[in-house]
Automatic annotation (TrEMBL):
This is Ribokinase. Keywords: ATP-binding, Carbohydrate metabolism, Kinase, Magnesium, Metal-binding, Nucleotide-binding, Potassium, Transferase. CDD domains: ribokinase (cd01174). One of its GO terms (cellular component) is cytosol.
């Protein structure tokens, strides 16, 4: 399988609570770790099946570190382009409840082009491809178009939210969103019933999954809408949990699992991730 997406060096600040607008608070710790939605998803997928990442990073030390980290995790980094730009970074605030706020600076991720994507996917010939919305729009469009033209399963994690046309959304199998993102694409209230949101998402995609934090996971296909319980764990840090879910889900689909079974495996992996110290 292949993931088309971003690589960022995460700067993680832990603090008692995140500041309000105009407020200054003292942080506890500052750590650096490789991240980015594409890289996170590829790393999670590589723990399950053979996975390649198509992306771009800088020629700086941050880029060296991220590419090395992915390779060590078993990700094929052949098609990670090294661009003459600063590598992408993300500033993440994590409070005592484990919740987070994230600011992303794209940097070299913006250098990935549609031609890069098509060339890489033509060479890789994956059976499953997943992408997100942190990359330039032309990258998302090229990924969706390539999958449609080649009859390849296309997974879309449309985050951060942005307006998307039917040429992208209609091929998503599944569309993977959280509750807030689901409400955005369904043009509904964030308090809407999960099954109501799922039906709205099914009207624009082939299948859909809504992750709802520690509550449950909604798996929607043309045949049924199922609700999966989430294992109860002591949450340490929710950063990257959605990416672990998406990457694990994609990998199990690549191995032939049904959507429901793949979602069960992804739910367990995500719970283990947020509880890890």
């Amino acid at each position: 399988m292949a993931v088309v997406g971003t690589l960022n060096l995460d700067l993680v600040v832990t603090l008692v609570r995140r500041p309000a607008v105009g407020e200054t608070v003292l942080g506890r710790t500052l750590t650096e770790r490789p991240g980015g939605k594409g890289a996170n998803q590829a790393r999670a997928a590589a723990a399950v099946c053979t996975t390649a990442l198509v992306g771009a990073t800088g020629t700086d030390a941050a880029g060296d570190r991220m590419v090395s980290d992915l390779a060590a995790a078993g990700v094929d980094v052949t098609y990670v382009r090294r661009a003459s730009d600063t590598s992408g970074h993300a500033v993440i605030e994590v409070d005592d409840s484990g919740d987070n706020s994230i600011i992303v600076i794209s940097g070299a991720n913006g250098r990935l082009t549609a031609d890069d994507v098509v060339s890489a996917l033509d060479a890789l010939r994956p059976t499953v491809v997943m992408t997100q919305l942190e990359s330039p729009r032309e990258v998302t469009e090229a990924t969706a178009k390539w999958c449609h033209a080649n009859g390849i399963r296309f997974l879309l994690n449309p985050s951060p939210t942005a307006h998307l046309g039917p040429s992208i959304l209609s091929g998503a199998d599944p569309l993977i969103v959280n509750q807030i993102e689901a409400a955005y694409y369904a043009e509904a209230s964030e308090d809407a019933e999960p099954t109501e949101l799922a039906r709205a998402l099914l009207s624009m995609s082939r299948s859909a999954i809504i992750t709802r934090g520690g509550d449950d996971v909604v798996v929607a296909t043309r045949d049924s809408i199922d609700i999966l319980d989430v294992p109860k764990v002591d949450v340490v840090d929710t950063t990257g949990a959605g990416d672990v879910f998406a990457g694990t889900l994609a990998a199990h689909l690549a191995l032939g699992s049904t959507l429901l079974d793949a979602a069960r495996s992804a739910t367990r992996a995500s719970a283990d991730h947020v509880a890890a110290k």
